[in-house]
Amino acid sequence: MQTQPYRIQKAAVIGAGVMGAAIAAQLANAGIPVTLLDIVLPDNPDRNFLAKQGIQRALKARPAAFMEPDRAALITPGNLEDDLKKLKDADWILEAIIEKLDAKRDLWARVEGVAKKTAILSSNSSGIPMHLQIEGRSEDFQRRFVGAHFFNPPRYLHLLEVIPTPKTDPAVLEAFSEFGESVLGKGIVIANDVPGFVANRIGVYGIVRAMQHMERTGLTPDEVDQLTGPALGRAKSATFRTADLSGLDIIYHVANDLNKATPADEDFTLTDTFKRIVEKKFLGDKTGSGFYKKTKDEKGKTKILSLNLDSLEYEDRGKVKVPAVEAVKSQPLAARVKALYGAEGKEGDFLRGVMNDGFWYASKMAGNVSNRLQDIDNALKWGFGWEEGPFETMDTLGVQTVIANLEAEGRTLPPLLQAMKNSGRERFYEGDTTVTPTGEATPYQAPYFILTDLKKDATKVVKKRPGASIVDLGDGVLLVEWHAKMNALGEDQLRAVQDAHKLVGEMGYAGLVVGNQGENFSAGANLPLILSQAQAEEWDELDDAIKQFQQVTTSMRFSPHPTVAAPFGLALGGGCEFSIHADHIVASAETYMGLVEVGVGLIPGGGGTKEMLLRFTDQLQPNQPLLPAVQRAFELIGTAKVSTSALEARKLGFLRDHDTVVMNKNHVIEEAKRMVLALAPGYVQPTPRQNIPVMGDAAIAAVKLALYGMTEGGYASKYDAEVGTQLARVLSGGTGNNRTAKVSEQHLLDLERDAFLTLLGKKGTQQRIEHMLKTGKPLRN
């Protein structure tokens, strides 16, 4: 059997600055031990000071760099004078030092003397070509070298640009790309070793051109950010908020370097206004002011000031609303893009200028920065938070329409667009094909297992409802996929699960996965429907609805076939309850799971309260008192605790030890399918528990005492205490029981349902639901 010489089990990062420390944290998140080295500071007695400081910075970072603080223990700090020899144990060595070519060359000369002969070697440089860094190194060193450009913050931005040089061994490229995707959870784009690589080359061009068009049309930065943010399917930080986050000095230097390194027609020339902003040291978040500045009013409330480009003074412009955006913001993305591209006035003039620049430049870069169109699209989506890349957006508008507009502006078409014009092809992606950078049709290769590819074959969709589908994943596994807004749980979603269970039994499938690839797994129940029924006093209908919900969530546990939940993103309320009842959970590492019903004056009514009590009771040692389990469940549910990662979800108890955490969200469905197939042989249908020990009145008394203290101390409102009392009644097994009572799961479910309905009938709960629906924030009444 052939062994894999490039398996990465230990790593080293050189450079403990913002990026180096954050990359080390992501390695630790993935369970990889990592050595973090930096220089020794003169006159500092702690020779590892910079590496330790980097770890502490990562621990304090917001958003958090570590998925759980304990992962920091996997990072060993050191320095380049005393600890260079430690690199001999590393399977992958990454440099993240200052962006100076001579410094990098000197470092690699030192590293080559100690690194083992199977170590993969990488630079995180964002602009210095990789082949220049390794000049003078041995042929063996050059063969194992590949660029690895992460985007900040590395935990959250999906993109990892992998940049081979002409000397890189294809086996190294393949092994490292697999490691980056599967172990680190990144979306891999293979970039050519050219200035700026893919995302920065096109992204910085877009910022430069946006600045030029903004000044030409007389728009303000906040107006531009309204036009180029979510309305256009791009990140909320849009153009100039993103610039502030990146650092205007960084953009200044990168743009100037690209201007020198690229042909004249690409034009990375910064405007005089931009140069003046940098000269005044308005560099963005790092200096507290850039295109925007945070300040506080007389009441201490944070205000965002916008930079006046004429005076370079900051002014309070309030909440800016752009009519072109307001007119389309409730429409689907495709409709918004088409409307904005065709908008009238200076807003439309600006957008067509910026979008046409982007279309022209992305097409010109095809085959230059990367050899596949989907890599360019993915780089912009994964690196900058776009919903669609430039080629996908051109498909939305119609490629021939875009070409006609570019020609009307007098532009020379890049070879790709000229080939598309000649062929008359209207889309870059059509069916199972795309095109090469020269415009020739070629099979589309999906970068990973995604549902949208399955849906190209209509026979894969077994049954469909407006808010849910049942999809055949192949090999005898069915998938229930929800696709409502925020995947809120209503009748479509519940009936789809019921239908899928029935199909598994009737058609002889192996089992069932519940998952999807929307923005979130599920944000919980359909609150508007629940509120309207409560206000109409439809109590019988609500009782039936909650019974059905309990039956469907618990069917994940008590069906005659294995069920696997595949949560990611938000898995709240009912989404959490579906997950915790499954035989097995395959969770994305970025899963934010919690039973949050108390925030709207309710308790979990779909078996969540019952399930957490069971789990914590089962974890007690023999003869240990029950109260700690009750208190743990009460604290978890009563404070609406939400995990900040799947690793924390395991600590909180939502995930069990045998559940699986997958670093790459896009692999969750595939892994869940594999788990169903692993569980199916010899699967035995579980039966509901009948002998669950409960404390009865003693538990209620203990919880009420704690609630009294919290209320008197100002930590809980009076209505919090009322909700908490109902929660305690369920966790105690009901009133009238003594310390040795045993109850069934159904008994606890009945208590849940009764408490849910009791609270729903109260004014305080209805006020909380109304407030949440209006503001998105909980009400403390």
TrEMBL record:
Q: Which UniProt keywords apply?
A: NAD, Oxidoreductase, Signal
Ranges for the Enoyl-CoA hydratase/isomerase domain?
A: 483-609
Q: Which reaction does it catalyse?
A: a (3S)-3-hydroxyacyl-CoA + NAD(+) = a 3-oxoacyl-CoA + NADH + H(+)
The answer to whether keyword Oxidoreductase applies is yes
Name all 3-hydroxyacyl-CoA dehydrogenase NAD binding domain ranges: 10-193
Signal sequence annotation: 1-30
What InterPro entries does the entry give?
Answer: 3-OHacyl-CoA_DH_NAD-bd (IPR006176), 3HC_DH_C (IPR006108), 6-PGluconate_DH-like_C_sf (IPR008927), ClpP/crotonase-like_dom_sf (IPR029045), ECH_dom (IPR045004), NAD(P)-bd_dom_sf (IPR036291)
Please give the coiled-coil regions recorded for this protein: none
Superkingdom of source: Bacteria
Q: Which residues form the 3-hydroxyacyl-CoA dehydrogenase C-terminal domain?
A: 196-293
Report the GO molecular function annotations. (3S)-3-hydroxyacyl-CoA dehydrogenase (NAD+) activity; NAD+ binding
What is its EC class? oxidoreductase
Which Pfam families does the annotation name?
A: 3HCDH, 3HCDH_N, ECH_2
* A Gene Ontology biological process term: fatty acid metabolic process
Full protein name: 3-hydroxyacyl-CoA dehydrogenase
Enzyme Commission (EC) number: 1.1.1.35
